[in-house]
Amino acid sequence: MVAGREDVTRTLSRATLKKRSIFLSKALGMHTTLESVLSGLARLVTAIAGLALALTDLPALAGEQPELVERGRRIFETVAGIGCKACHGPFAEGKVGPTNRGVNEATIREALAKIGPMQFLREQLGDEDIKRVAAYTEWMGRHLLVKALLKRGRFIPEAVSIYPGTPVQLVIENAGSEPATIAADGIQVASPTIPARDIVSIVWTAPQTESKSTLACSDCKIKDGTLTIEVTKAAKPYTPPPQPKVVAQP
Ligand code: HEC
């Protein structure tokens, strides 16, 4: 494959990982006075909190091959400097091109061969890269995409219904100019802080039992808005999208 953005991203994140582990080993280092033990502990807690936050970005938490899925995600977002997402949407929900959630390796190969606007990608993607990106699109296909917008302390929509046991990719966009911390009540998810005008992806599997939980913004100026997630058998069960038939386009 041609050295492109993907490689750079990979190297960059390796460097970040290295920095993190240095940070961690420093935090774990020997301390003699009580004070330094305590500050060491505090740093360790910060380091762990930082790691947990970094992990919420990974779609792989519930995946079978986290490493492969994560590599695929990077390709999907960066290949040729624009990523598949430029045409298929940041979460493969569809844009100028159709949704890519659930497409498999064979379908992607067919599209690369038959779709004119995708020709320039042939040179950019090695055999392994296609497998990686397919691992990610298939991972997305197994997850129901739920999108919410956080605007002036309110969530749009304010409520969603999800069938019990559904694996969910919950994507929250912070439309505001201040960072927003999401606090969950009733579900076990990390509490990510979404930077201003940024998006966070939370991966979560709905419990098998019916339940109701809420998400709120804990540091927004207006706090009365919530997103209610109702897990109910009345919701439509999620079925992964069928494999599309690729129609050649010059
Ligand atoms: C420059 C825009 C562009 C980029 C970048 C792009 N695609 Fe596409 N892709 C399209 C268009 C347009 C179509 C659909 C054409 C049609 O429906 O006739 C398509 C179709 C597809 C299809 C067939 C799906 C279907 O429902 O017919 C797959 C699979 C696909 N793309 C995967 C990818 C993947 C994976 C990447 C990144 C490696 C990618 N595409 C990057 C524009 C793009």
Number of structural units classed as domains: 3
Oligomer: single chain
Question: What share of the residues does DSSP label as strand, in percent?
Answer: 15-25%
Average pLDDT works out at: 81
Present as ligands are: heme C
What is the third-level CATH name, the topology of the largest domain?
Immunoglobulin-like
Largest sheet descriptor: 5 strands, mixed
What would you give as the CATH superfamily of the largest domain?
Cupredoxins -  blue copper proteins
CATH architecture of the largest domain: Sandwich
Order of helices and strands: HHHHHHEEEEEEEEE
Low-confidence stretches: 1-63
Instruction: Please identify the structural class as seen in this structure.
Output: alpha+beta
Counted beta strands: 9
Spatial strand arrangement across the major sheet: 3-9-8-5-6
CATH class of the largest domain: Mainly Beta
In DSSP terms (H or I, runs of 4 or more residues), the helix count works out at 6
State the end-to-end distance.
24 Å
Give Rg in angstroms: 20 Å
Describe this structure in words.
It is a single chain. Helices cover 36% and strands 20% of the residues. By secondary structure, it is of the alpha+beta class. It folds into 3 domains: 5-61, no CATH class; 66-141, Cytochrome Bc1 Complex, Chain D, domain 2; 144-231, Sandwich (Immunoglobulin-like). Strands 3-9-8-5-6 form a 5-stranded mixed β-sheet, with no helix packed on it. The longest helix has 24 residues, at 5-28. The two termini are 24 Å apart. Heme C is lined by residues 79, 82, 84, 86-88, 96-98, 100, 103, 107-108, 111, 115, 117-118, 121, 133, 244, 246-247, 249.
